[in-house]
Amino acid sequence: MKLITLLVVIAGVIALAQLAKVGQLTSLIRNKREEDISAADTRLNGGLFVAFMVAFYASFIWLIIRYGDYNPPAASAHGETYDTLMNFNMYIIMAVFFLVNTALFMFANKYRQDPNRKAKFFAHDNRLELIWTVIPSIVLAVIIIYGLRTWNEMTGEASEDALRVEVYSKQFDWTVRYPGADGEFGLANYNLITPTNPLGIVTADGVSGALEEIESQIAALESELAHERGTLLAQIEEVEAELHASHDHDHGHVDHGHDDHAGHDDHGDHHGMSAERMAMLEARLHELEHMLEGPDVVVLSNAAAEAKAGKVHRLKRHRQRIMEVKPFDYEGGVAAWEAGADDKIMKGEFHLPVGREVEFVFRSRDVIHSAYMPHFRAQMNTVPGVPTRFKMTPTITTDSMRTVVNDPDFDYVLLCNKVCGAAHFNMQMKLVVESEESYKAWLESQEEFLADKEVATESDARAEAANIENNESATL
Hints:
By secondary structure, the protein is of the alpha+beta class. The chain has helices spanning 2-29, 39-67, 77-110, 126-155, 204-226, 229-252, 261-271, 275-293, 302-323, 336-339, 398-404, 436-444, 458-475; strands at residues 163-170, 173-178, 344-347, 349-353, 358-364, 369-373, 378-382, 388-392, 412-416, 428-434.
């Protein structure tokens, strides 16, 4: 099939080349120059311009009729304003589109080549300059002012009674958090992220858990490094060398029969080894030999050992950053370390009440994502380290929208509209809009972050941190 297609293309090129030659030969026979164009040719070209314009407009109008609703129905209060602004801009763009293209094609037909007409040349025209400067400026000013007013309405401060919802993104899923009965989100810190605390919510329990997790990792790595075969052999060699040096000194010392034992003892203090030191070295040698024969011995390359030592160093810095997180109280008197205990965390699906303003707080763990809810005309980038916000008021419940779109399986969805990695397509989360009563019943049925868990206190976390500091000081 590919060969046939290639042959057809080649034959077409050859045919076009031959037709061009026929045209050249015809001009020679008629004794006509190639640049000489007849009135019939110019009329034909002018008519073709007009015909193309008609076909062009017809196809454009058909596309508008067929695919004009490029957005799904708006389901938020600002979504209707957004669509009105979009349509306003589209009407202006289409008016300019028809005006400019009509002038283009009609001028091409009207002012086609005519040997009896001479073109008029002029260098400047104040009226034209005024027209194509003032009119576009006025139109752009209207668009900008209207757009800024709409934007300010969409992005202004949320009302005090607005529902606050946190949307947390990471490769490659979404997590939604609701504040508990205290109305405050628990403080979050990326240093506290663990498998059981994926949002890094700062609670006394979370601080203690993170410190315990890091301590266990440090202990495991240090144990592995301590049982590395090459390291053990090097330490054994060092201990044996020190022991042998002491033995050689003792064997080389000669008693000259002096009665001045004080001077002899002083000589031994400087060049000999105390019995306590000797016993400590022998015990250490025995310990190293026992470790070398044990089942925990590992063999690591220099690069692997350096990598593990570097990880230990990073984990200790991580531990230090966690220990620097200090408790404080919010303005309402709620302790920051206790506010997150009753937060509610959702995966896979979250709910919103219809007719109530919602303020979204967006955070990201890793890269820039973009939270996009097409039916609500809402989109906001989620940036690591920089919380972003967006407000909206849902106006159509999920059940009502299913009737509008005539799809019983329809669901609102939260998407990522930023290519964030290989599994970007997997970043979607179901969103349910329902009545206030249904929303409250659903929220009450969800578990709190530290529900049914033994909650540590701030003093417990501080005691844990102090204990780690004391152990670290003792080790040093």
